[in-house]
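Students often ask why inverse folding is considered easier than folding. One informal answer: many sequences map to the same fold, so there is more than one right answer. In these notes we will look at a single instance of the problem. The structure comes first.
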């Protein structure tokens, strides 16, 4: 870690207390959270990333939590900190759903969790929309197809275990591409609603978004009506056979 790395003991003081108890926490709550972090074995936090909160860099911010780069032992990890104003009273359910996704090798690996924190594998890379923007030259179409195929395979595996991510209509925010693409952020996930991972992700990548417009410039996009018809059939019956038809129409079946 670089010079932006600070010991967790400093997180109870300004300006870092903003991150430990975003958007505002009492001194008592900050002390409780510090004790919780010590118990989890977190030693330092590194403030870096493209998102900023009051000029403090973080990896990300959502409705439930703030994510920062941390260190547990000798390993770099992503630490998700529950927001004080979150509608969730604890992080246990999200951790449980991430663990479920991990059973089919989807998502960052869950390492540990507590009431206010989730510790997971740090996935280094770029958001899929930024990665696509930078794709240029020979072989870019093949790279794009391989990445999209992996994302859709992961989506199918989530559909198969009846775990709906819930936010893949906005896939540009929820897939990081590094050595391999990884679906992140399961705070809106649920096993209590009909899954739509494959359909939401496919529509977001190929039909109606800024990402879709970028994809069209790199590879051939199938006929919209034909694609939508295959997705409707898959939505009705989420079988491997129907998923394979979607892949075939997208030209991804041989990858």
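Output (designed amino acids):
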């Amino acid at each position: 870690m670089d010079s932006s790395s600070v010991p967790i003991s400093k997180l109870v003081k300004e300006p870092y207390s903003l991150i430990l108890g975003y958007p505002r926490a009492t001194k008592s709550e900050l002390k409780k959270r510090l004790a919780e972090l010590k118990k989890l074995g977190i030693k330092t936090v590194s403030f870096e990333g493209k998102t900023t909160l009051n000029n403090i860099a973080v990896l990300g911010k959502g409705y439930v939590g703030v994510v920062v780069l941390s260190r547990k032992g000798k390993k770099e990890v992503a630490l998700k900190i529950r927001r004080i104003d979150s509608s969730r009273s604890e992080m246990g359910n999200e951790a449980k759903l991430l663990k479920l996704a991990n059973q089919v090798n989807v998502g960052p690996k869950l390492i540990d969790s507590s009431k206010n924190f989730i510790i997971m594998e740090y996935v280094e890379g770029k958001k899929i929309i930024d990665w696509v923007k930078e794709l240029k030259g020979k072989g870019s179409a093949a790279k794009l197809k391989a990445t999209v195929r992996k994302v859709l395979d992961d989506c199918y595996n989530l559909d198969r275990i009846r775990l709906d991510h819930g936010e893949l209509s906005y896939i540009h925010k929820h897939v990081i591409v590094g050595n391999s693409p990884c679906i992140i952020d399961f705070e809106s996930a649920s096993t209590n609603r009909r899954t739509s991972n494959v359909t939401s992700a496919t529509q977001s990548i190929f039909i109606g978004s800024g990402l879709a417009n970028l994809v069209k410039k790199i590879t051939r996009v199938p006929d919209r009506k034909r694609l939508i018809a295959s997705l409707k059939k898959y939505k009705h019956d989420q079988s491997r056979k129907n998923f394979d038809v979607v892949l075939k129409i997208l030209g991804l079946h041989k990858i």
